[in-house]
Write a structure and sequence with these properties.
The protein has helices at about 15-25, 40-50, 70-75, 100-115, 155-175, 200-210, 225-235, 255-265, 280-285, 290-295, 310-315, 320-335, and strands spanning about 5, 30-35, 55-60, 80, 120-125, 140, 180-185, 185-190, 215, 220-225, 245-250, 250-255, 275, 305. It is of the alpha/beta class. The chain has one domain (about 5-330): Rossmann fold (3-Layer(aba) Sandwich), CATH 3.40.50. The longest helix is centred in the middle third of the chain and has 21 residues, at about 155-175. The relative contact order is 0.14.
C-alpha cells in the first residue's frame, strides 16, 4: 500500500501542485478542504496537471475548528501543512490573521505529533525572514534570519506567517525539530492550474488589466510554483532536511521588471500594463487610502536578496529563472480568461 501524505488546504495554488507531484511520485494523498463541495474542482485541476487522482481522497477540516483533524491524520506517514490565510487587502489589525495562521498550524501540528508522523513539511514564507527596521537597500537574508514581528510597519500577513512559523518550531522543540521542515517561498508565480487564481497571481492580474496607472517601488524574491512544489516533496524525505528552513527563491524582481516581462510576453495587453514607478513619498500617501498599497509599505525602497544556494545543495531542487515564472503566470491567466 502506498504511503499516505496529508496535504492541508488542498484547493490552494501551491497545494494543488504539491498534491499533483505526490500523486505522480506514487503516494496516496489525502487533502483537506473547508467544504467537500470543492473536491470535484480540485480533482479536475490535478488531472490538468497530469496527475492520476484515483489515489486522492478528501476530508473536511478547517484551521479554525477542531473537528475533522483526527480523522485527517489517521494512517498518515507525512504531512504537508500548506493552508494559511493570504488576503490581498490586509486588515488594519496587524494581529488579525494570527489565529487562523498560528493557532491553525498548531492545531494540525499537535495532531501530527500525536499521530507520530515521520515528518511535517510546513509552508512558511520568506516574509518570516526578511523584515526588520533599518534594512539596507540591498538586503541579503539567510536561513537563520527572522522577521521582527513587533516592527510596527508590518502587514497582518507578515505578522501571521512569522508568528505561525515561530510557534511551530517552539512546539517541536530541540528534541523533535528533525521531524519538522519549513519551506519559505518568495513571491509565488508560475502557471495558474485553473481559473481559481491565487492571491499571489492577483498582482499579475492587476498588472495585465491596468488596475493601477503606476507601480510602487518594491521588489520581491520570486519563485515558480512548480519549483516550490518540487521542494516540498523533496523536503519530505531528504536526509538532513529535518530541522531546516528552506528558502524557495533565487531571483528578485521589482514590479517594474515584472511589468516589462509581461509586456513582452503578452503583447496583446501591452497598452494596459503600467510603465511608471511611483516615488516612495507618493506611495506612502496612497497607502493611507488603499489597503492593497498599504500592505507593501514595509517593502518600499528595499531589494531583498535570498541566499538560497544551500537549498539546491541539500535537496537537489534548483530554481528556474523568475522571469519564466512571470511569463507563465501572465500567459496562463490570459489563456484561462481570468485576466
Amino acid at each position: 500500500m502506498a504511503d499516505t501524505v496529508l496535504v492541508t488546504g488542498a484547493s490552494g495554488f501551491i497545494a494543488k501542485y504539491v498534491a499533483a507531484d505526490l500523486l505522480k511520485a506514487g503516494y496516496a494523498v489525502r487533502g483537506t478542504v473547508r467544504s467537500l463541495g470543492r473536491t470535484d474542482g480540485v480533482r479536475e485541476s490535478l488531472t490538468g496537471l497530469g496527475a492520476d487522482t484515483s489515489n486522492m481522497s478528501f476530508c473536511e477540516a478547517d484551521l479554525t475548528a477542531e473537528d475533522g483533524w483526527d480523522a485527517a491524520l489517521e494512517g498518515v506517514r507525512y504531512v504537508q501543512h500548506i493552508a494559511s490565510p493570504f488576503p490581498m487587502a490586509q486588515p488594519r489589525d496587524r494581529e488579525a490573521l494570527v489565529p487562523a495562521a498560528r493557532d491553525g498550524a498548531l492545531r494540525v501540528l499537535r495532531r501530527a505529533m500525536a499521530a507520530n508522523v515521520e515528518r511535517v513539511v510546513m509552508t512558511s514564507s520568506t516574509v518570516a525572514m526578511m523584515y526588520r527596521a533599518n534594512r539596507s537597500a540591498e538586503h541579503r537574508f539567510e536561513e537563520n534570519d527572522w522577521t521582527d514581528p513587533e516592527w510596527d510597519k508590518l502587514s497582518a500577513y507578515i505578522v501571521s506567517k512569522t508568528r505561525a512559523e515561530r510557534a511551530a518550531w517552539d512546539l517541536f522543540g530541540e528534541a523533535g525539530k528533525d521531524k519538522l521542515v519549513t519551506v519559505n517561498p518568495g513571491f509565488v508565480l508560475g502557471p495558474a492550474p485553473d481559473g481559481d487564481a491565487a492571491t499571489s497571481l492577483d498582482l499579475v492580474k492587476m498588472l495585465l488589466t491596468g488596475a493601477y496607472p503606476a507601480m510602487p517601488p518594491i521588489s520581491f524574491p520570486s519563485v515558480d510554483v512548480r519549483d516550490v512544489a518540487a521542494l516540498h516533496v523533496a523536503a519530505m524525505t531528504t536526509p538532513g532536511a529535518g530541522g531546516r528552513r528552506l528558502i524557495a527563491a533565487s531571483d528578485t524582481l521589482s514590479l517594474r521588471q515584472m511589468a516589462d516581462i509581461l509586456r513582452a510576453a503578452c503583447p496583446e495587453r501591452a497598452k494596459k500594463i503600467p510603465k511608471w514607478t511611483l516615488p516612495v513619498s507618493v506611495t506612502r500617501l496612497a497607502a493611507l487610502f488603499d489597503p492593497t498599497i498599504r500592505a507593501v509599505v514595509p517593502d518600499l525602497g528595499v531589494r531583498p536578496i535570498p541566499q538560497s544556494a544551500y537549498v539546491t545543495a541539500l535537496t537537489g531542487v534548483s530554481f528556474r529563472a523568475a522571469e519564466e515564472a512571470v511569463r507563465a503566470a501572465g500567459r496562463s491567466l490570459i489563456d484561462l480568461g481570468v485576466a
